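=== RUN LOG ===
request id: a7f3
mode: sequence -> structure
chains: 1
length: 325
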Amino acid sequence: INGGVTLEGTTLEGRTYGVYTRLSGNTDYPDSQDFNGNTSNGARLSLNDNTIIGLVGVQIQSDDDFEDEDAIGRIDIINGATFKNSVYANLIEINSGGRVEFSGTESGTEVSGADESGGLTDTTIDLNGNAVELVLGTGVTVRGDIVKSEDSINSTVDFLGAATVTGDLGVSSGSGDATLDEVIVRGDVSNPVVINGSLATDLLTYEANNRMRVDGDVLLNVNTSSESSQNRVNFQDNDGTLEVGGNLVGVEGKNAVTTTQANTGTVTMLGDNTAGGEAQSITGNIGTDTFAISTLNVGGDGALASTTTVDGDVFAQNVVLDNNG
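=== RESULT ===
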């Protein structure tokens, strides 16, 4: 698609389609067409600062009804792009800096792969080594990983509200380490952000009283190459919550969690329901002697318990042990 073009799409039977295929069934469409979803030699969509309003990577019937997901093999993006609806592609390569937005919709927005039968599968959004501003709107689910080239330290991921990443966020696509420069959490506590894998970022910033759950590790320790490295979670003056299913890995001797207003911010080491609780660890200081966080929970709600080792100082108004109901 030519640079800067907005693809308005076609509205059929109440749905708006941007990039799609058709099944056969009448004289107007005598032959079925579908995308080859192979990431190496399948269908490829190249974007350059484009906006696509409708669905991407789906198939419709000859009578204009929705049929199934029909994933594009690969989407290549330079100079940014905006997607206003669900996107089905088995690989999304972001090949330059710029702003890439997946906007949320009231019914939810999928960014996913799909197999030949239309079943949803994992995709990969690869930021490569570029300084990308990736924006995920309220209601977006990324089914898969968002990765970076090994040894790269840049890019921002901005969560505007409730969103889910079913894999890892910000980790390396290779054998070396990588990290995002910043992850921003907005919205409110009723619209949590969920990362089912691990999160790698130099700075996790709360711009609202929202909740983020990371089922894997929170890796704040990758960027130690410069004096400007943050290596921390910053609640600022917001009473947000960070729930961690793995380890909270900061830098020894540095503040791993900070706030700019005393008695704000909660860290919960979720643990699990095994006897004695899951073994977890925190590296770095929690809060400061000037601005203590609100609460450190060791163990999550219900039957969850944790055995957490802290390598650092803890400044918290409340430390709740085995918070299992």
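=== NOTES ===
The radius of gyration is 22 Å.
The chain has a mean pLDDT of 93.
=== END ===
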